[in-house]
Amino acid sequence: xxxxxxxxxxxxxxxxxxxxxxxxxxxxxxxxxxxxxxxxxxxxxxxxxxxxxxxxxxxxxxxxxxxxxxxxxxxxxxxxxxxxxxxxxxxxxxxxxxxxxxxxxxxxxxxxxxxxxxxxxxxxxxxxxxxxxxxxxxxxxxxxxxxxxxxxxxxxxxxxxxxxxxxxxxxxxxxxxxxxxxxxxxxxxxxxxxxxxxxxxxxxxxxxxxxxxxxxxxxxxxxxxxxxxxxxxxxxxxxxxxxxxxxxxxxxxxxxxxxxxxxxxxxxxxxxxxxxxxxxxxxxxxxxxxxxxxxxxxxxxxxxxxxxxxxxxxxxxxxxxxxxxxxxxxxxx
Amino acid sequence: xxxxxxxxxxxxxxxxxxxxxxxxxxxxxxxxxxxxxxxxxxxxxxxxxxxxxxxxxxxxxxxxxxxxxxxxxxxxxxxxxxxxxxxxxxxxxxxxxxxxxxxxxxxxxxxxxxxxxxxxxxxxxxxxxxxxxxxxxxxxxxxxxxxxxxxxxxxxxxxxxxxxxxxxxxxxxxxxxxxxxxxxxxxxxxxxxxxxxxxxxxxxxxxxxxxxxxxxxxxxxxxxxxxxxxxxxxxxxxxxxxxxxxxxxxxxxxxxxxxxxxxxxxxxxxxxxxxxxxxxxxxxxxxxxxxxxxxxxxxxxxxxxxxxxx
Lengths: 333, 310
Hints:
The complex is a heterodimer.
Chain A: E1 3-12, E2 15-25, E3 30-34, H1 41-49, E4 56-61, E5 64-65, E6 76-79, H2 91-101, H3 106-119, H4 135-147, E7 153-157, H5 165-182, E8 185-190, H6 193-199, E9 202-207, E10 210-215, H7 217-222, H8 227-232, E11 237-239, E12 253-256, E13 262-263, E14 270-281, E15 286-291, E16 297-300, E17 315-320, E18 326-328
Parallel strand pairs in A: 3-8, 3-9, 6-7, 7-8
Antiparallel strand pairs in A: 1-2, 1-4, 4-5, 9-10, 11-12, 12-18, 13-17, 14-15, 14-17, 15-16
Chain B: H1 4-19, H2 22-51, E1 55-57, E2 62-64, H3 70-75, H4 78-112, H5 115-126, H6 133-144, H7 149-156, H8 160-168, H9 181-206, H10 209-217, H11 222-251, H12 255-258, H13 266-277, H14 280-303
Antiparallel strand pairs in B: 1-2
Helix pairs in contact in B: 2-14, 4-9, 4-11, 9-11, 10-11, 11-14, 13-14
């Protein structure tokens, strides 16, 4: 096991940034911590790195109690959100910094720095300074600077957040490939659910300092346990008996993905009548908002290209299979 | 009356006049300050410095507008060189010691003090600058004199022996604290210290927390982080502060008169030359010295890479 949190709490005064979190990160896995800002995911990462100490609880890294170990004694390295490259050093010195402070000889250092820079395709910028590089390049340097120390666990704090969409997608692929190639445990913090879904082996979804669910991307998307997870991972229609008093009984709550609902079709064991009230064209997909007679709305995402122009304001029927509704655990209130 | 659209167009064309003429905008913006700088600062300074190349007629005691390098050459005469070295050595000692004291204070202010404590420290640093410099300098003559507060405290602590040992050191000591270089050094450091704390504090403020985290994350112990990250990135602040402490000490002529052993500073010499003797050219030549020292200092600081992180 790479990293284990046992009932870890981190409170800042009255603010419970991390509130009783237990995590087990397996060796060699790509583990993501996903959540909105202020959900405690970054604080958890900082607790792993040692920048923060828990208010209570225990943290194990590589089987060793690391709760009170300072950052410089932990065999983990971090890629920072703002990269945190040393502005007064060349790229070579930045990457070699970890080796230098550990007393690795200059000659060995140069070789390992070169290899690390080659790994991220940046051998040609060794003598430049951080401010002479683009955001994407700085990001790779930050990666090389961490990896050159051969950490057991690499911590990444929203490393792609500052990059534009195309570059971000490219780096997602490269990071994933790198993780497979090196076999290191990656702990990846992000607020972008698409990013987490496409890269991770497992994802922990954070909300208000707690973990809502830890699972594989498929399970999180297909079988979310809570309303928050259902809503945060993509789009979900939350179906309870205030929406469909005739079909749902009692306190049960379900999530239904818009793409599971069929338009103007009589297949499926649940059927409703409504009117198209809004059409959201998003390029690859189109979402249609259907207003029900009780003025509540349901989002539908047809799985095919279709003629939008004829739909506006039209009465339609929607239908789905009961089996596609995912029962959610409601917090006991 | 103009129709509304025509009126709007007229207004638009007036505000657009500046928008479409960036040079005019720049001129309006910078014109006054630029003139002020040229007329009030640059021209008089150049005029003053150019006088150092005039000739002073010892016989008639008048300035003759005749080019000569005699004044510059005169600076290197043993008596004058002595003054320059005495002043520069004091300025150097004051700057180094101020930096050593200022750093921890500034570090505590930026990294550890809470909001209220930070404000309190800020005011404490700036507060002494609100009182008259002359009053402060005079107070120190009382504090340092024999039978003064400093002597009482040292006596009460039983450290009179240590003090006397210090005062016996040649070129640092003297008969009493108030007539020693040590005393003068204390007063200078006291008066100029805020000018060192504030720029270092500003430099530390700019230092991103994540750089310190990164250093520690990469395995650097606290001292290594200080040595390789904090210090190099604060050097511009230290240099800015040392330019203040250095040049203020170089130019001061009050403290050397009030505290410390006899012997002129550059400032006193300028005062004597232009005030008592009327030898403007020699006074001008002396004012060249601090300017040149600072210029050389900045040149080497830049070459050593002190400003690379800016």
